[in-house]
Amino acid sequence: MNPSAALKKETDAGDCWRGFRPGDWQNSINVRDFIVRNVTPYAGNEEFLAGPSQRTKAVWAKLQPYFADERKKGVLAVDAQHPSSLLAHKAGYIDRDNEVVVGLQTDQPFKRAIFPYGGLRMVEAGLKAAGFEADPAVHETFTKYRKSHNDGVFDAYTPEIMNCRRSGIITGLPDAYGRGRIIGDY
User: Fold this and answer.
1) What pTM does this model have?
2) What does the alpha-carbon distance between residue 22 and residue 38 come to, in Å, rounded to a whole number?
3) On the CB side of 24, how many CA atoms lie within 13 Å of its CA?
4) Most Cβ neighbours (<10 Å): which of 6, 23, 114, 149?
5) Burial, 83: exposed, middle or buried (Cβ in 10 Å; 0-12, 13-18, 19+)?
6) What is the pLDDT of residues 24-76, one digit of tens each?
7) Rounded to an integer, what distance in angstroms lies between the CA atom of residue 119 and that of residue 55?
8) Residue 179 — very low, low, confident or very high, per pLDDT cuts 50/70/90?
9) Which sign does the torsion angle of CA 140, 104, 91, 149 carry?
10) Phi, psi of 79 (to 5 degrees)
11) Could you tell me the CA-to-CA distances from 81 to 88, 128, 134 in Å, in that order?
12) Rounded to whole angstroms, how far apart are CA atoms 83 and 167?
């Protein structure tokens, strides 16, 4: 069944699209048409928002000393041994009793993670700039056994592309986009 027929069948089967203005978006993938026809811009102010809860205020208060320390010292901590991933660090909390949404990037507040999958040299330069040492095991892993995004991109470049890149004829190639944050601030 083609996508249009599937959408038509679903529309006929129930009222899941009730309240939406009809348009081209019903027959083809046309997000712009859907938005133009069905989104009403909000022109009011922030008065409808609720203020922070006592729990939010408690969590925010626990973070204040970290903000002050970071302003004085710079980066407070980095886990340079474990490249960031979904399971790289145990659960971290700011104020476990007051947190509703949990899941720090690392196991403690203001501890940074490294992202060598984007590019090892950038991670090592970032660590050095922040006053931390790169881990030799991570260096070995990402120079001998694991290819980073940058390595993969550069491996795909032809000699002609590399010459154009070096000369500045071509800028903004994909190697400039894939790195993400090298030492993450979350």
Assistant:
1) 0.65
2) 9
3) 7
4) 114
5) buried
6) 999 999 999 999 999 999 999 999 999 999 999 999 999 999 999 999 999 99
7) 39
8) very low
9) negative
10) -90, 95
11) 10, 14, 8
12) 33
Position 17 confidence tier, pLDDT thresholds 50, 70, 90: confident
Q: Is the pLDDT of residue 113 over 90?
A: yes
**Rounded Cα gap, residues 31 and 120, in angstroms:** 38
What single letter denotes the amino acid at residue 101? V
Q: Is 71 helix (H, G, I), strand (E, B) or coil?
A: helix
**For residue 116, which of 92, 90, 91, 152 has the smallest C-alpha distance?**
152
Q: Token pair 């980066």 is at which residue? A: 75
Residue 7 pLDDT: 56
* Predicted local confidence at residue 119, as pLDDT: 84
- Which of 72, 80, 174 has its CA nearest to residue 126? 80
Strand partners, 25: none
Amino acid at 79: D
The rounded distance, in Å, linking the Cα atoms of 65 and 80 is: 23
